[in-house]
Recover the amino acids of this structure.
C-alpha cells in the first residue's frame, strides 16, 4: 500500500503530533485555499480569449467542485461509492425546484441542495456500513444511482427533459450572468469547498477517516468506531456533491437526469483518480485535464479521439501512477528530496 | 397463449442473459474482477463474426469459431498485459485499478468498433432464420430461438463437464472457494486466471453473436446487459456458474412476464430495487461472519424456531 501513502499519514510520526491531532493547522488550510484561488485567478485572462474558452473554464470548475466532493468519500475512507451523480442531481433538482417554485434565494438553494445531498449521503453511508463488502457497495450504489435516474425520468416533476429556466446564481440582487462573473463565483465556491476539505483532512476526523480506510479493525481496537468516520466522510462528500449539482443547475439554467448517469460517475471517478485520490489539488487538476484536454482536442479537430484519450489515460495512470498525478509527484519529491518539511507544501 | 409466448421469450432472453452472466461470473468469481469490459468482449465477438461472414463471405461456423478464438486471445492478452501488474496491490487499490482499466478498455473498444465498422446498426444473416418457425405447444418458435436455446444448453453441458470433471475446472472452483488454500495445494493460480479470463471472454463472444443475430449489431450492444449481469451474478452467487445461469433464466422470465404489466422503465428500476434490498438483507443476516448467505439464512430460521419453542 506504500504507493498511496499520503503525506497526511506521515504527519503522524512528527513531533507536533499532539498539536495536529487535536487542532487544525489553519495556516495550512489557508495556504491550500489561497493556492487554488491564485491559480484560478491567473487563468482569468484566458477567459477573455473567447466565449467558448470561458464556457469550458466554467465547466472545469463545476467538475472540480463535484470531484472534490467525490474525492472525500472515495479517498479518505476508501469506500468505492458509485453514485456521485445521484447526490449531484438530487441536490440540483432540489435547488432548482426551491428557487423556481418557492422563490428561495439562490444561495440558500445551493446550501439546501447540499443538505439534500448530505441526507442522501447519510442513507448511503449506513447502507455501506451494513453491507460491508467492497464489491457489494460498488454494485449497490450503482443500482441506487440507476434507480434515482429512473425515478426522476419517470416523475412528473423532472422527466426526461428535466427542469429548465433555472435562474443564475445571485447574491443580493447581483446576478452572475456572464461566463466571466460565473467563473469568479464558482472559483469562490470552489475555494470554500477546498477549505472545507483541507480542514477536514488536517483534523482528527480526517486522520481517523484515513485510518478507517487503511485498517478498520485496527481503528476499532484502538477504541474508535470506524462506522462514524465512514459516515462523516460520505456525508461531507455528498454535501459537496449536492452543492456541485445545484451549481450545475443554476449555471447551466437547465438540469436533466441524462447529465447525471453512470457516464458522469465514471467521468468523476477518472478525474479524481488521475488527479490523485486523497489529495487536495488532485480533483481540480484532474478536472482541468479530463475536461480541458478533450475539449482542446475537439477544437483542434480531433474530436473523435476523445474516448481513446480517456481510455488510454485511465489505463496508463492506473498502471504507472496509481496515486494520481499529484499523489505520485508528492511521493516522488518525498522520496528523492528527503526533507518532508519542504515538500509538504505540495499536497 | 400469451403465457406460452412469454414463457418462450423468457427462455430465449434468459439464455442470452445466462451465457453472459455465467461468463461474467467466471471472471468475477475467480479473479475478483468486475470486468467492465465484458460488454465489448460480447460485442467484439459479434463484430468479428460480422467481418468474417457478412463482409468476407466465410461460412457461419468459421465465423463463430474464429470469433470466439479471437476474443479469447484478446482476453488473454489483456489479462497478462494489463491485469497481471495489478495483482500485487492492496485490495481497494486492486479494485480501483481493475475498474478503471476495464472501463478504459470499454471506452477504447466501443469507439473503435464504431470507427472501424460504422456506428449504425448492422444485421447478421443469421437473423434470417427468424423467418422460419416451427409450431410448438400451441405457439410457434422460430429457428433462431431454437438455436439460441440449443447453444445455451450445449454450452452449459460443456461447462458442467469442465467444472466437475477436468483439472482446470476443479482448480477454478477451488480458487473461488479459497484462494490461499488452493495455492497451498499447488494450483498455479496465475495460469488459472489466464485460462479463466480467456474462457469468460470466449463465452461472452458466443453470446454476442447470438444476441446480434436476434437483434442487431451496434457498438454499445451489451452495456445494458452488463448492468443486468451484475444483478444476476450477485443473486446467483459470485463465482457460481450455475447460480448465475439460473438467475439469468429467472431474470429473463421475470422480464418476459413483467413487460406485460409494467412499462420497461419500471422493470429495470424494480430489478435494482430488488438488488438493493437483497444486499441490505444479506448484510443484516450475515453479521455473524458466516461465509454464505444460505448458512446465515438457516441460522436465522433455526434461531426463530428455537425462540418459538419449536424443536427442529
Amino acid at each position: 500500500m506504500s504507493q498511496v501513502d499520503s503525506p497526511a499519514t506521515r504527519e503522524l510520526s512528527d513531533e507536533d503530533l499532539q498539536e495536529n491531532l487535536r487542532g487544525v493547522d489553519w495556516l495550512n488550510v489557508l495556504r491550500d485555499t489561497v493556492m487554488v484561488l491564485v491559480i484560478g485567478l491567473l487563468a482569468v485572462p484566458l477567459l477573455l480569449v473567447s466565449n467558448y474558452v470561458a464556457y469550458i473554464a466554467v465547466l472545469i470548475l463545476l467538475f472540480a467542485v463535484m470531484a472534490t466532493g467525490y474525492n472525500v468519500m472515495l479517498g479518505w475512507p476508501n469506500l468505492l461509492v458509485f453514485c456521485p451523480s445521484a447526490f449531484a442531481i438530487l441536490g440540483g433538482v432540489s435547488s432548482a425546484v426551491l428557487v423556481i417554485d418557492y422563490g428561495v434565494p439562490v444561495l440558500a438553494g445551493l446550501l439546501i441542495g447540499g443538505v439534500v445531498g448530505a441526507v442522501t449521503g447519510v442513507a448511503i453511508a449506513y447502507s455501506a456500513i451494513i453491507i460491508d463488502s467492497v464489491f457489494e457497495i460498488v454494485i449497490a450504489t450503482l443500482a441506487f444511482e440507476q434507480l434515482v435516474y429512473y425515478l426522476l425520468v419517470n416523475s412528473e416533476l423532472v422527466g426526461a427533459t428535466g427542469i429548465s429556466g433555472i435562474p443564475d446564481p445571485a447574491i443580493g440582487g447581483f446576478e452572475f450572468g456572464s461566463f466571466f462573473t460565473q467563473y469568479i463565483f464558482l472559483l469562490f465556491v470552489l475555494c470554500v469547498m477546498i477549505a472545507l476539505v483541507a480542514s477536514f483532512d488536517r483534523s482528527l476526523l480526517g486522520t481517523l477517516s484515513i485510518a478507517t480506510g487503511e485498517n478498520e479493525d485496527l481503528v476499532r481496537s484502538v477504541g474508535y468506531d470506524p462506522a462514524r468516520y465512514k459516515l462523516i466522510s460520505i456525508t461531507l462528500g455528498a454535501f459537496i456533491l449536492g452543492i456541485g449539482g445545484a451549481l450545475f443547475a443554476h449555471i447551466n439554467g437547465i438540469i436533466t437526469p441524462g447529465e447525471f448517469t453512470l457516464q458522469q460517475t465514471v467521468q468523476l471517478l477518472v478525474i479524481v483518480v488521475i488527479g490523485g485520490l486523497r489529495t487536495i489539488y488532485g480533483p481540480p487538476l484532474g478536472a482541468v485535464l479530463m475536461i480541458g484536454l478533450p475539449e482542446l482536442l475537439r477544437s483542434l479537430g480531433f474530436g473523435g479521439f476523445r474516448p481513446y484519450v480517456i481510455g488510454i489515460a485511465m489505463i496508463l495512470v492506473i498502471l504507472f501512477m496509481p496515486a494520481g498525478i499529484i499523489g505520485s509527484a508528492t511521493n516522488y519529491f518525498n522520496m528523492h528530496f528527503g526533507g518532508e518539511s519542504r515538500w509538504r507544501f505540495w499536497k | 397463449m400469451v403465457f406460452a409466448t412469454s414463457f418462450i421469450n423468457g427462455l430465449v432472453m434468459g439464455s442470452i442473459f445466462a451465457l453472459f452472466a455465467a461468463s461474467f461470473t467466471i471472471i468475477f468469481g475467480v479473479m475478483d474482477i468486475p470486468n467492465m469490459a465484458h460488454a465489448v468482449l460480447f460485442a467484439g465477438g459479434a463484430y468479428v463474426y460480422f467481418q468474417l461472414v457478412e463482409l468476407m463471405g466465410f461460412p457461419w461456423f468459421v465465423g463463430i469459431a474464429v470469433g470466439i478464438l479471437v476474443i479469447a486471445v484478446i482476453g488473454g492478452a489483456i489479462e497478462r498485459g494489463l491485469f497481471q501488474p495489478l495483482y500485487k496491490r492492496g485490495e481497494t487499490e486492486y479494485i480501483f485499478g481493475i475498474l478503471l482499466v476495464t472501463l478504459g478498455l470499454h471506452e477504447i473498444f466501443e469507439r473503435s468498433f464504431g470507427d472501424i465498422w460504422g456506428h449504425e446498426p448492422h444485421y447478421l444473416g443469421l437473423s434470417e432464420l427468424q423467418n422460419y418457425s416451427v409450431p410448438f405447444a400451441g405457439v410457434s418458435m422460430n429457428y433462431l430461438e431454437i438455436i439460441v436455446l440449443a447453444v445455451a444448453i450445449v454450452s452449459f453441458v460443456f461447462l458442467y463437464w469442465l467444472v466437475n470433471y477436468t483439472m482446470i475446472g476443479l482448480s477454478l472452483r477451488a480458487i473461488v472457494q479459497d484462494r490461499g488454500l488452493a495455492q497451498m495445494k499447488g494450483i498455479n493460480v496465475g495460469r488459472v486466471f489466464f485460462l479463466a479470463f480467456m474462457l469468460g471472454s470466449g463465452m461472452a463472444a458466443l453470446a454476442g453473436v447470438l444476441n446480434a443475430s436476434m437483434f442487431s449489431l451496434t457498438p454499445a450492444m451489451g452495456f445494458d446487459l452488463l448492468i443486468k449481469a451484475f444483478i444476476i451474478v450477485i443473486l446467483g452467487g459470485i463465482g457460481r456458474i450455475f447460480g448465475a445461469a439460473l438467475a439469468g433464466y429467472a431474470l429473463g422470465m421475470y422480464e418476459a412476464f413483467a413487460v406485460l404489466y409494467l412499462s420497461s422503465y419500471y422493470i429495470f428500476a424494480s430489478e435494482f430495487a430488488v438488488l438493493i434490498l437483497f444486499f441490505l438483507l444479506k448484510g443484516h443476516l450475515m453479521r455473524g461472519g458466516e461465509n454464505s448467505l444460505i448458512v446465515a439464512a438457516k441460522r436465522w430460521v433455526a434461531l426463530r424456531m428455537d425462540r418459538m419453542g419449536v424443536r427442529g
Summary: Chain B touches chain A at residues 32, 34, 82, 85-86, 89-93, 95-97, 99-101, 103-108, 110-112, 115, 227, 230-231, 234, 238, 265-266, 268-269, 272-273, 275-276, 279-280, 282-284 (CB under 8 Å). The first helix of chain B runs from residue 2 to 31. Chain B has a mean pLDDT of 83.
